[in-house]
């Protein structure tokens, strides 16, 4: 064979044999170093100690505790309207009057009828007194034989007639006095008074108008306002009358007003399966107005010195509530027992101590023992 062909072929065969005889370790050492697993950046938060309240928030429109439309009891035109919107009124204060000229005339006629009836009664009583004397005299004379029986019978008949006239006059007086009392009541009904203490929030008629279906005025007691809302069966079961409530209104930012839970409906509303509750807040200073949109926070329970973590720092895994604790750069899932929650923070009763570092979002998929680099949560 040609020497120029044999020599290169021999060299190639020798190289293949040498490569096949090298160990795997030598091969690994010949390649670049294996890539290391780098820690993952995770936002973390520190468990703190503080106070927490478990509360229920409701919202709605403030309304006066009582709002009473006022209408005259009698038909007719208004003679005067003495109040305007915004005026403060007391219970029993005169608000308006109805034209009472005809009513006064009827009352005067009733008073005159009473006077006539009294005079008639006096006359009947005088006649009765005279009839008594005549009857007694007739009896004495009859007993002495100086008067016939017929004259005695006539005296007794006259006495009974006088007594009947007196009784009739008494009944007539009672009837006319009743008519007079009714006329006086009608006179009083012509005066429209405030049924409650409060403020005029609506006025619909002026003097000279004949009121229709609408009230003359509406009186609202603004010394105490109420906020009504519907709550679920579970929420209603946790509430008790007398619980404190903190009320805030959009029109008064930065301010809060103290109230309390005043009423819980004992029956569910079939339309929405909610129970009606009512929060009342004092308004002596008139800082709140009827119709303002408000939010009430009803405090159910509270704790001081509690271990607190963000709500998202606890999640459910395999049917258990856990938090992801970061220690020495590694993640460990720890079972926790929760207490109160205010919607943003959760009280931890067991499993986490103050100062522990936790992954902000416990739903994050991190294997137990995974290496992480803690990053302060924003």
Task: Describe the overall structure.
The protein has 378 residues and is α+β, with helices and mostly antiparallel strands. Among the domains are: 43-52 and 304-376, conserved putative lor/sdh protein from methanococcus maripaludis s2 fold, CATH 2.40.420; 100-189; 220-302, Efflux pump adaptor protein, beta barrel domain (Elongation Factor Tu (Ef-tu), domain 3), CATH 2.40.30. It is 31% helix and 37% strand. It contains five helices and 20 strands. The protein has helices at residues 3-21, 24-30, 101-144, 149-189, 233-238; strands at 40-46, 48-61, 63-70, 78-81, 88-89, 94-98, 191-193, 198-203, 217-231, 244-249, 257-264, 275-282, 293-310, 315-317, 320-327, 330-335, 337-341, 345-350, 357-359, 372-376. The strands form four sheets. Strands 2, 3, 5, 8, 9, 10, 11, 12, 13, 17 and 18 form an eleven-stranded antiparallel β-sheet that branches. A hairpin with a 2-residue loop joins strand 14 (315-317) and strand 15 (320-327). The protein is elongated and about 150 Å long. Residues 1-35 have low confidence and may be disordered.
Integer average pLDDT = 86
Describe the main β-sheet briefly: 11 strands, antiparallel
Q: Which outline best applies?
A: elongated
Structural Rg = 49 Å
Q: What percentage of amino acids are in beta strands?
A: 35-45%
User: Which spans have pLDDT < 50 for at least 5 consecutive residues?
Assistant: 1-35
Question: Total number of β-strand segments?
Answer: 20
* Structure annotation, total helices: 5
Cα separation of the termini: 81 Å
Order of helices and strands: HHEEEEEEHHEEEHEEEEEEEEEEE
**Which bin fits the share of residues in helices?**
25-40%
Class by helix and strand content?
alpha+beta
């Amino acid at each position: 064979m040609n020497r120029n062909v044999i020599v290169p072929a021999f060299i190639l065969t020798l190289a293949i044999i040498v490569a096949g005889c090298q160990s795997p370790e030598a091969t690994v050492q010949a390649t670049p170093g294996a890539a290391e697993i780098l820690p993952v950046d995770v936002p973390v938060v520190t468990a703190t100690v503080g106070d927490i309240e478990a509360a229920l928030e409701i919202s709605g429109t403030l309304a006066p505790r009582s709002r009473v439309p006022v209408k005259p009891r009698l038909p007719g035109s208004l003679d005067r309207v003495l109040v305007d919107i915004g005026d403060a009124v007391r219970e029993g204060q005169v608000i308006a009057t109805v034209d009472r000229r005809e009513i006064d005339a009827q009352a005067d006629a009733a008073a005159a009828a009473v006077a006539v009836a009294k005079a008639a009664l006096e006359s009947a009583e005088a006649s009765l007194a005279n009839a008594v004397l005549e009857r007694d005299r007739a009896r004495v004379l009859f007993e002495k034989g100086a008067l016939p029986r017929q004259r005695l019978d006539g005296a007794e008949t006259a006495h009974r007639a006088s007594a009947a006239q007196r009784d009739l006059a008494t009944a007539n007086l009672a009837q006319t006095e009743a008519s007079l009392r009714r006329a006086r009541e009608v006179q009083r009904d012509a005066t429209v008074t405030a049924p409650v203490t409060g403020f005029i929030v609506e006025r619909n008629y002026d003097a000279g108008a004949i009121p229709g279906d609408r009230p003359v005025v509406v009186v609202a007691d603004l010394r105490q306002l109420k906020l009504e809302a519907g709550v679920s069966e579970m929420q209603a079961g946790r509430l008790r009358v007398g619980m404190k409530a903190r009320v805030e209104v959009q029109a008064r930012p930065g301010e809060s007003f103290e109230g309390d839970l005043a009423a819980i409906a004992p029956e569910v509303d079939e339309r929405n399966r909610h129970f009606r509750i009512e929060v009342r807040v004092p308004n002596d200073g008139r800082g709140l107005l009827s119709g303002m949109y408000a939010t009430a926070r009803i405090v159910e329970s509270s704790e001081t010195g509690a271990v607190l973590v963000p709500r998202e720092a606890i999640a459910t895994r395999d049917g258990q509530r856990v938090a992801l604790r970061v220690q020495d750069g590694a993640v460990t899932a720890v079972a926790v027992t929760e207490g109160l929650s205010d919607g943003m923070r959760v009280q931890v009763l067991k499993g986490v101590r103050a100062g522990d570092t936790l992954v902000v979002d416990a739903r994050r998929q991190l294997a137990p023992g995974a290496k992480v680099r803690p990053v302060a949560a924003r």
